[in-house]
Every structure is written in structure tokens, then in C-alpha cells.
Design brief:
It is a single chain. With 203 residues, the chain is α/β, with parallel strands linked by helices. It is 34% helix and 18% strand. It has helices spanning 2-28, 55-65, 82-87, 102-114, 150-161; strands at residues 72-76, 94-99, 124-128, 141-145, 171-175, 178-182, 185-190. It has a five-stranded parallel β-sheet. Strands 6-7 form a two-stranded antiparallel sheet. The chain starts with a helix and ends in a 13-residue tail after the last strand. Residues 176-203 have low confidence and may be disordered.
Length: 203
Amino acid sequence: EGSSKGRYYKRIRAWAARIKERILDRKLGIETLQESIFMGSLDQESDSPYQPAPYGRLEAAMRFFKPDGRDVFVDLGCGKGRAVFLAATHKFKKVIGVEKDKHVYDMALQNAKSFKCRSKKVPIELLHMDAADFDPVESTVFFLFNPFGQTTLEKVLKRIENPQRRLSPPRVLSNGNLAVIKDGKVTAYSASKNFNRLSSLGD
């Protein structure tokens, strides 16, 4: 009986979470839910299925990054663009979304057309390309939410941490594979830390 009740409450929480996601999507004028999506170019070795970051975690990420109008935000493996459009409601100089899958990228473009923000819009740039080929020279804040496998992640981090390509020290926050880059070097990297533990990232 106890396990049955636990499963019941778990379903209720999941249902409530999905309702919240729909409400927040509607508020931004976008559609980023996970259902009815096909990742046509999914490579099991380097890619991951589409999975939007929960809004609660995104807001926690914004609090961690504390943008002040000078940072350029980039979501590598942005999917339909949920993190990109939410970031555009905060004080960023510019926000960029990078997506490899053409089908999903087109959905992000549609969201860009319908996106609504009461405040002055932050410039938004959506790129259809492999994250491993993205030039991070102007970006200072990086967000990754289960976007690809270990192989691509290592290539991406190598490009980000190259001090010769940096205008300023970058900050990186990733789900599952967690990387913190400070002063142009990877100072913390783990495949086991959980995204929820934002406090473990330090300053």
C-alpha cells in the first residue's frame, strides 16, 4: 500500500510539473515541451534525445550566473530554445542558441517568431550547427542541459577553455556532466555531480 501511494503522489507531482511548464511556455509565447518530437540525426555516441531543462532549474541557473548586461549567454544544444528565450528576459548583452538537429532547430526558429517579452528584448541568435564547431570567442556564459554525449562534451570544453580565444573568463553550467571554467581553465569537472547542487559550484 505504501509503494502504491508513493507512485500515486509521484504521478501527481509529475502532472503538476507539466502544467507549470505549459503555463510558463505560454507566458513566453513559446512551445518547448518534450512530446511529439523526433530527433532525426541522433548519434548515440555524441548526441542526446531532446530534453528541455525544467523552468525551476533555469531560474536557478540565472541566479547563479547573475548577468549584468555585459555577458553573452550561449546554450549549446539548445533544442527548441527554452533556455535561450528565458535568458533573453534577463540582463544579458546577447543570447545565442546552437542546435545541430535541423528539425528541432526549425522549431526554435518558430519560437523566436512567437516569443514575447514585456521588457526590451535582448538580441537573440539561433545557429544551426554542431556545438563542437561553435566559436565561443564572444561568449562568457555557457549553459548545457544533457545536450550531447561525452565525446562532443570534451570537444566543446576544449574550445571553451582555450585562453587565447577568450575575451573574458567563461562560466559554464551543465546538467549531468558538470563543468566549471574559471580564469580560462577547467577548474571543476565531473560526470556525476547533480545540477540541483548549484551551491557546490562556489562563486
